[in-house]
Design a protein that fits this description.
Two copies of one chain form a homodimer.
Chain A: E1 6-11, E2 17-23, E3 26-30, E4 32-34, H1 47-52, E5 58-61, H2 62-67, H3 71-76, H4 79-84, E6 90-93, H5 96-101, E7 106-108, E8 113-116, E9 123-126, H6 128-138, E10 142-144, H7 160-182, E11 192-197, H8 203-215, E12 220-223, H9 232-242, E13 251-254, H10 260-267, E14 273-275, H11 278-284, E15 287-290, E16 294-297, H12 317-320, H13 325-333, H14 337-362
Parallel strand pairs in A: 4-14, 5-6, 6-10, 10-11, 11-12, 12-13, 13-14
Antiparallel strand pairs in A: 1-2, 2-3, 7-8, 8-9, 15-16
Helix pairs in contact in A: 6-7, 7-8, 10-14, 11-14, 13-14
Chain lengths: 363, 363
Amino acid sequence: MSKLPFEQIKISTNGGRSGILNTRGGKVRTPFFLPVATRGAVKGLEPTRVAATGAQVLLSNTYHLHLQPGEKIIKKLGGLHAFSAWTGPILTDSGGFQVFSLAKVRKITEEGVYFKNFASGAEIFISPEKSMQIQLDLGADIIMAFDDLTGLDAASISRVPEAVERTHRWLERCVAEFTKRTKNLKEDQKPLLFGIVQGGLAKKLRTKSLEFVQSQPVAGVAIGGLAVGETRPEMYAMLKYLAPRYDPAKIRYLMGVGEPVDMRLAIEHGIDMFDCVLPTRNGRHGNVWVTGDKKLNLGSAAFAKDSGPIDKKCDCNTCKSGYSRAFLRHLFKSADPLAGSLASIHNLRYLARLCESYREGKL
Amino acid sequence: MSKLPFEQIKISTNGGRSGILNTRGGKVRTPFFLPVATRGAVKGLEPTRVAATGAQVLLSNTYHLHLQPGEKIIKKLGGLHAFSAWTGPILTDSGGFQVFSLAKVRKITEEGVYFKNFASGAEIFISPEKSMQIQLDLGADIIMAFDDLTGLDAASISRVPEAVERTHRWLERCVAEFTKRTKNLKEDQKPLLFGIVQGGLAKKLRTKSLEFVQSQPVAGVAIGGLAVGETRPEMYAMLKYLAPRYDPAKIRYLMGVGEPVDMRLAIEHGIDMFDCVLPTRNGRHGNVWVTGDKKLNLGSAAFAKDSGPIDKKCDCNTCKSGYSRAFLRHLFKSADPLAGSLASIHNLRYLARLCESYREGKL
């Protein structure tokens, strides 16, 4: 790369930092939050509305886009940016999360993972190589390695060590495939490849995994396998444990975390980026965050006559456009999809502002 | 009124015309189409998005807003404009359409109509006086008289003459109640009251009804009881029959019509305004109009690889923002509510442009 993928600008005493991620799709200020656009769009929101919340990068889903409409169609139509009308950078997850979330309908082998498509009955196979091909066809700016993510429940936890080893072997295969497929691209036109650290709640495994991933030619280090059912103290202990062990040259991405309180602790311990369905999924159910990381449900009868905005201190489009809590409650009662869209905008802005507060000097 | 409610600017040989409707909420260029915001919002669309389609006036529903959240709450919150964040004029229907559409759960008496609220089991009573009170509490700029609308099926048609007579008696009660309740308002702060012409497909009854309504102190004449199941030739015959019989000083409103082909014929025969759920309801189901009044369904597999906009000649936000037919089809397949919102925007713009073409010289 002509530029380093990650330029650190400021670092706090406890390891929190701000900086710039250089992607082929544009510069990204860190720390930042990625809204989830599973199938290319953030549900119910035009991309211009998402961008207006301060979002810089979207996350889309390899598995779902592979199934519908298929990466070949998206490639033919000019890639995911042209297809979805999102002009900023895009990160695609690898399909690895589906290894975990679709546990009942998949079979893991060393070669890759076989999924059963409920809708069509067809068998889908995703391997490290296949995942690279799909993500490159989609045209993502940030590509995630295909990993073997396992849960922390009693039935799964014994599989953690094996999953770590497989994740490492798969990362080597991802690097090889990615390198081969991008070798003819100019340096500044190559997407970034991120590796994923696994290891559950076992410190030794996490150290081993972090060291392995950081030894690979990847621009970013993702922390996978957290926010999958462990307690908050368990997650915090691991984030604190990992904080002094990161390579400063690589960006760090905590996958699947989107509760403000968790993001604050993570940022203060060296995490640069996050994704989560919470702001939009919660929003669609009327759950919003307000100043102080408090939660409200807009469907509540308590708001029936409340003429104020969701949060007087918020500068999101929903709070600034004159929509009262009473009107939003009415829209939720009316099952109008506008309700979820307006609440999603508010929640996305809430997380974007949280990140901005760290970029602008809270560190 | 200091100004005449309706100022005729141009009139064509066959009776089509353009002009200006002066409401307390602002001037409206005619002919125009009212998007339907049943519960205060056009489903899935922010009011700024609706306004950007060229829509000037919204239609909201007295019956539904009376049930939820109730006109008293809306009044307390500053009226329907403040509540819904729509800054243009608002027309409220009277509840009369529900006399027709909720035929199975209502009982008509001379005093008014009793409805059964399925959700709560409660009995709701709407009379001409009650309808005026609700619409004035809501803060509508255009208020519709409460009418007795009946269907044209075999079971209902014998009731047409009786319904016309009752509609006339109820109009007198509406005028009296409206006059009493608005007597302390300055002339330019009074809403406009429109009467409704009934009479089914019977020319004599229609003539009688039109003459009666036009004799009343109303600003507008609405044609009700069409687009309720009759054939297209039957509707057209009635519109042509009525065309030479209108009072030029009153605006004419064809209720419930929103098919482009029907709007064209109606405009060319003297109709000034329309409302209909079609553009938004159709849009939510993927049905869109394109140049030539043709219809497409965006869910069709034929569009899976179509990189073009819905309509190359359209200037709506959806067509101008880079959303391809392929992407829209994908959003419909994904059940993303954004799909319906984007298609609704397109359809609303289609009808607004149709009206603009008549304002700008097609007459």
